[in-house]
TrEMBL record:
Key words, A-Z: Amino-acid biosynthesis, Histidine biosynthesis, Metal-binding, NAD, Oxidoreductase, Zinc
EC primary class: oxidoreductase
Binding site for substrate: 206, 228, 231, 297, 330, 384, 389
Cofactor(s) needed by this chain: Zn(2+)
Organism annotation: Enterococcus aquimarinus
Signal peptide range in chain numbering: none
Positions contributing to NAD(+) binding: 99, 160, 183
Source superkingdom: Bacteria
Catalysed reactions listed for this entry: L-histidinol + 2 NAD(+) + H2O = L-histidine + 2 NADH + 3 H(+)
Pfam families: Histidinol_dh (PF00815)
Active site per the UniProt annotation: 296 (proton acceptor), 297 (proton acceptor)
Protein's UniProt name: Histidinol dehydrogenase
Gene Ontology terms for molecular function: histidinol dehydrogenase activity; NAD binding; zinc ion binding
Length: 402
């Protein structure tokens, strides 16, 4: 996979828009003479979107904004020592690229979840890429982009889109950071290009772990497990319970509900090949196993779920109680749905406003303040064998020493 993706990246770096056109025709079966969508194209997509979808997107935006506004950071100034000023600036990134998946499903929710935190952070230019099919880009994607305030939209996808954002082409601007989930080609491209461009994380297949006891509703749990399984054939849906009876009832419900799904074939492969039900002895074992998995989504369907929140050590996003179903987080509640997968919740966090800022430190010393600390600086510089470092301090006091 890496060799295939490296060849695509090198081609786009060398040949720019010509390579993009070739790959778009090869992989998406679309011949394009222009990658950028016009304002009229976006407005037309907005107008074609059903009113109830627009209303739902607007509600989602309000919730996402209200949650992410609380993540904003401010700088600080420290002047505790006489003659010394230290501080930190919090600065937004200049340009960010957002990848919105296409393929087997459309995700207007991903547009909101990626673009709105960037806007709140103060990013000046938000560029979106998403693959086009024979019918073009789904109108709901364009409506979400307009609602979220995306500045530019380019109808390209795959590893070639990531390369275009990282290197820039004749028509597509180079960005400082690329965010958003994609397929294995997209994830591999982001991994290879990290360092050339910043990225959010390497996203794998979607996953959910449900912790439940005998009080839980098996129909609810089965529905929640299948809501993840229908994402991808590699998705993981896991139940960890202390109740053998609940485990068997959930298994029956999964089979019943699975047969009713439009995406049954995808969900069935995920359930049969990558999912599981664990029956364990007690709550302590439930949480120990869950924290070892470090899931993207965690549902706690136990009695008094809030009382168990302190047991969570590694999870992307937590859903408490029978009525906080995981799709709430996917679409509407407000916390971000771009989450660490494949155990990376041990060290990654959900996408947020902080992902679109940089911190820059500053210092100011008067001569009198430097005089108090100069000897320690020179001692440490010479201990490291860096004489020029020491002399850069010493030269400022040579008049007094001569």
């Amino acid at each position: 996979m890496e060799e295939v993706v490296k060849a695509i990246l090198a081609d786009v770096k060398e040949n720019g828009d010509r390579a993009l056109a070739r790959y778009t025709e090869k992989f998406d079966h679309v011949a394009l003479s222009e990658f950028r969508l016009s304002a009229a194209d976006i407005e037309n997509g907005f107008q074609q979107t059903a009113p109830e979808v627009i209303e739902a997107l607007e509600l989602a935006k309000a919730n996402i904004v209200s949650f992410h506004e609380k993540q904003k950071q401010t700088g600080f100034v420290d002047a505790e020592k006489s003659g010394v000023i230290r501080g930190q600036l919090v600065l937004p990134m200049e340009t960010v690229g957002i990848y919105v998946p296409g393929g087997t499903a459309r995700y207007p929710s991903s547009v909101l979840m990626n673009a709105l935190p960037a806007q709140i952070a103060g990013v000046k230019q938000i560029v979106m890429v998403t693959p086009s099919g024979p019918e073009g880009i789904p109108s709901a994607i364009l409506a979400a982009a307009k609602i979220a305030g995306v500045d530019e939209i380019y109808q390209i996808g795959g590893a070639q889109a990531i390369a275009a954002l990282a290197y820039g082409t004749e028509s597509i601007p180079k960005v400082d950071k690329i965010v958003g989930p994609g397929n294995i080609f997209v994830a591999t491209a982001k991994k290879i290009l990290f360092g050339q461009v910043a990225i959010d994380m390497i996203a794998g297949p979607s996953e959910v772990v449900v912790l439940a006891d005998e009080s839980a509703n098996p129909r609810f749990i089965a529905a929640d497990l299948l809501s993840q399984a229908e994402h991808d054939t590699l998705a993981r849906a896991i139940l960890i319970t202390t109740s053998q009876d609940l485990a068997q009832r959930v298994q029956t419900e999964v089979a019943t509900q699975l047969a009713l799904l439009p995406r049954e074939e995808i969900a069935r492969q995920a359930i049969e090949k990558h999912s599981a039900i664990f029956v364990v002895a007690d709550i302590e074992t439930q949480f120990a196993l869950m924290n070892e998995i470090a899931p993207e989504h965690l549902e706690i369907q136990l009695n008094d779920p809030l009382s168990h929140l302190s047991r969570v050590k590694h999870a992307g996003s937590v859903f408490l109680g029978a009525y906080a179903s995981e799709p709430l987080g996917d679409y509407l509640a407000g916390p971000n749905h771009v989450l660490p997968t494949s155990g990376t919740a041990r060290f990654f966090s959900p996408l947020g406003v902080e992902d679109f800022i940089k911190r820059t430190a500053f210092i100011s010393y008067t001569k009198e303040a430097l005089a108090l600390e100069k000897d320690a600086v020179m001692v440490l510089a010479r201990e490291e064998g860096l004489e020029a470092h020491a002399r850069a301090i010493q030269v400022r006091f040579e008049e007094e020493l001569s």
